[in-house]
Amino acid sequence: MRAVFSLAMGLFAVSVGAVAQAPAASDDFVRTHFAKYEYRIPMRDGAKMFAAVYVPKTGAFKDAGPYPFLMTKTPYSCGPYGVDRYPAMLGTSRELMESGYIFVCEDARGRYGSEGVFEEMNPHIDEKKSPKDVDESSDMYDTVEFLLKHVPNNNGNVGIMGISYPGFYTSASIIDSHPAIKAASPQAPMTDLFFGDDAYHGGAFMLGANYGFYRAFKPQKNPVIPAAGSGGGHAADPKEDPNTYKTLLEAGATGNLDTGKAYLNGENWLFHDQLMHTTYDDYWQKRDLSRHMKNVHAATMEVGGWFDAEDLSGPFKTFHAIDKYNPGNAGMNTLVIGPWTHGGWVRTDGDHLGDVTFNAKTSLFYRKEIELPFFEHYLKGVPAKPLPKAYVFETGTNVWRSYDAWPPKPAVAKTLYFHANGRLSFEAPVEKAGVDEYVSDPAHPVPFVGYPTDTVPQRYMADDQRFAAMRSDVLVYESEPLTEDVTIAGPVKPKLKIASTGTDADFVVKLIDVYPYDYPAPEGESSGNKRIVGAAPVVMGGYEQLVRGEPMRAKFRDSWEKPAALTPGKVTVVNGEMPDVNHTFRAGHRIMVQVQSSWFPLVDRNPQTFVEIPLAKPEQFVKATESVYRSSSEASGVEVLVMPQP
């Protein structure tokens, strides 16, 4: 959705920022090849949706048509507005733009040029009893009906795609779908905000990303069309703070960010709703789109990135939900996951993230060899090699893998157990007693990166964790150097036995790939085991690459709807589930797990007292001693799905 501001704006890549392989910032190609039309499309409840439509001009393409529609829906604006004003780019790639489609962008209900009332992730209505019962499915149905009748030279086929929030609209649009919708690609779709997407992870509020996003994404009075020359897009990002760790720590309880005059001043109810619905209540449950993915008749391709800091869970939940509720359509439902950040398959080359390299321009491969053939086949009838059920990039080995199911059927569940002296192995502990302890202080939370930052940097999901391993409030468990490759594929499930002196606690678990000490820097960038980043050398030998990390808020250990306090000193089970991975720990590397109780300001601080966290008083933020048990009867570890080695 969200934390990337203008980077998440969907189909019209001019709004996506720097796009790999995109033309220069000029509208020349679009202007010379497309005629632009603007429509106010009536919905069944009387509201009118704004749509910008770009139709190939006669003779502009070798294929004279008729053309299919390729459309997106967005809350971030379909600007620039005015039939004489053109964007620099249409679609998510030059390949699509040059292939001959009728591109359509529609403003979401209640945003920019569209009438109606905007709702965050507008809930789907399964049973519509009157024309007043409208949602994204009905709005798309009415939009498609209008386009088929009013836009000339169309071939009767419609494709829908979108990244992030537009990915949600893509998914929601194909429920009870119009028969003309033949292909849809929800990309990094917001699916269930409380479970692993933008708002909450493991019951903990994703503070940095949401506060940053809602400083710019504000309620609107609609319809509103930005004046010509104003840019006509997402609101300008506010001036960034050079050190969010310091600023957000000084703000105190997160509720101060909502109401404080120096912050949002109570003026953004969108942020308020995200912050104050701290349990899995009706607000979140009715916005879980995965419950409603029924009567999907289009071919679908869910796309995501292993390093997506915003909506990594969404593609998986959407993929599994479509299979579950549409068994007859399962053969046309594909999952594609690459080594990308949020929307990185559009706006980066996909050959590296921070210090970690992937040895190929994976984004270009995806756009040319996967995305373009998908739409060409289902919308134009162009022959194409069938996609596998799951087409995923395996980090570590840096190769694409094809599977007939996800997670892969051969993967076997094994547990990485914690042992004495910081040892980690697949062998269960035999010690009759064992515990490791640390003191967690909310006044000095563990940072999520080892450098000052003004936002949530995309690279954090593969960043070096050596800075955290040196802290006394972080437990470290590490395997011996591996004698053979270990490939894990699927969800990662921490299973902890803990005790706390507080009445609530967070447990952040991080799965880490530790490079050998003689690991070389990428060729051509430096010599030895140092990689030059700017003016500073990064030592890649011993690099501790984050593979996956998630918080678990202990008050939700038994119920997401009804949190419960911890009993100080009582041994308690706290289990969690992290988003999927597909990573190979190479021979010679080590596997590491770190455990800590804060991850700031990525995640809001737990006061470590059982209170409504946004409203916590200063005196309720207290130090606590956290204990993690590792004996034969009270074992702790991380369950992973391990692939057999060839």
Structural features, described:
With 646 residues, this protein is α+β, with helices and mostly antiparallel strands. It has two domains: 5-403, Alpha/Beta hydrolase fold, catalytic domain (Rossmann fold), CATH 3.40.50; 412-643, Galactose-binding domain-like (Jelly Rolls). It contains 13 helices and 28 strands. The strands form six sheets. The protein has a ten-stranded mixed sheet with strand order 1-2-4-3-5-6-9-10-13-14, sandwiched between helices. Strands 15, 16, 17, 19, 24, 25, 27 and 28 form an eight-stranded antiparallel sheet that branches. It is globular and about 75 Å long. The model is unreliable at 3-25, 229-233 and 524-533 (pLDDT under 50).
At a glance:
With 646 residues, the chain is an alpha+beta fold. The chain has 2 domains: 5-403, Rossmann fold (3-Layer(aba) Sandwich), CATH 3.40.50.1820; 412-643, Galactose-binding domain-like (Jelly Rolls), CATH 2.60.120.260. The relative contact order is 0.12.
Summarize the SSE layout with pairings:
Elements (H helix, E strand, L loop, with lengths): L27 H6 E9 L5 E9 L10 E8 L19 H4 L4 E6 L28 H15 L3 E10 L1 H9 L7 E7 L12 E2 L2 E2 L1 H8 L29 H7 L4 H5 L9 H8 L5 H4 L13 E7 L7 H13 L7 E6 L5 H4 L4 E2 L2 E2 L4 H19 L9 E5 L4 E5 L8 E7 L5 E2 L9 E6 L25 H4 L5 E4 L7 E15 L5 E9 L15 E4 L2 E4 L4 E10 L18 E4 L2 E8 L4 E7 L27 E6 L7 E7 L3
Parallel strand pairs: 3-4, 3-5, 5-6, 6-9, 9-10, 10-13
Antiparallel strand pairs: 1-2, 2-4, 7-8, 11-12, 13-14, 15-16, 15-28, 17-27, 18-26, 19-24, 19-25, 19-27, 19-28, 20-23, 20-26, 21-22
